[in-house]
Model the fold of this input.
Amino acid sequence: MTASRAAAVPPSDARLAEDVERRHRLIREAAERDGLDAVLVCATEYTGFEGAMFYLSGFRLLHRYAYVLLPVHEPPTNIFPGEGRWVGDHAEGWVEDRVFAETPGKWIAQRLKDRGWKRLGVYGLDLVMPVRDFVELPEERVVRWDAEFDLARAVKSEFELESVRESMRINEAGVFAVMAAWEPGMTEAELMAVAEREFVGRGTRRLTMDMVLTGPEGAAWPEMRLPDEKRRVREDDMLIYGLEVAGPGGHWVEFSRPMCAGEPSTESEQMMQAYREYHEICRGAMHAGATAREVHRAVSRPFLERGWKLGHVTGHSIGMTMIEHPRIGEAFDVPLREDMVCSMHPHVISADERTCLYFQDTWHVRADGAAPLSDAPLEFYDPRHVRDHDGRLPSAQSG
Done:
């Protein structure tokens, strides 16, 4: 085991420094309320699971995995596997105490013993922590703390909301760049590459998650897939690039719109009408004090009343981790709070399971309702009408 205490540069931006103090305070207050001595945040390079570490420490995970240990009454420590000593810029964060351990789990277990800590709350125990570290921990002292951590950071500061809005501008630019580049005969992957160039050039680094729903004759198949480097798009294809990004500030957003140069199918048009109804319901139903279950039931109504199915939860809280607690679904009786940010994306599937409609919006929860972070109309977009994107919204097919 080696340790490094070369001083990290504290956040030079006064507003960032203030926000970092706020983040640590919120997590410590929640931990103390739950009788914890410390919180261990697990991070991995698996897309969407790096953000909790960046949220607390400012370190951008390049490869492998790492931890932030945040005691209730001590300064935090960044813990890295020894083989990651030269992987990533460890000095870019604001945590001064950095440890490089051959087996981080052994180091963490020893710290618990040395400090006499009885309860360690772990964020990422089920989905992120490597088995080799988990087996080293005293099981009787470990507490699963995913939902509690997410709820402690769910309400965004104005500083964070500015970061969210910047991510949305980047996401919109990528979506409309794809439309502007569209030509029959291009592959799904070639179109996706256009968005990726836009994203990386605007500061996402690699924090993007890409998929596509597509199908012929103006309708999309229900399966979400990776863009295909061989399948060439045709004029009547329905294309829905599901694009999720985190900008330089680390906050994820989700935004997409369907495009079709031909005529959308009759069922696709009917689904779009239900989507417009859902969107208006969401503006009023997603308010502070409403539960995630109540919101889900309200916004699902336009789809279920028409006899369609929903593929999964209608949305979720979103922040520096791509999917945070709570989900917007039947199983989550969790009150929403003002200044939470939620992604909404009903996956509407026809009764015969042959077609669907699915696209994303990110919403700002307010006291009396919610506001979408994009004002792009809810329409099918004809990519032939979108050229030389200059930051303005392109024309939709109708409306």
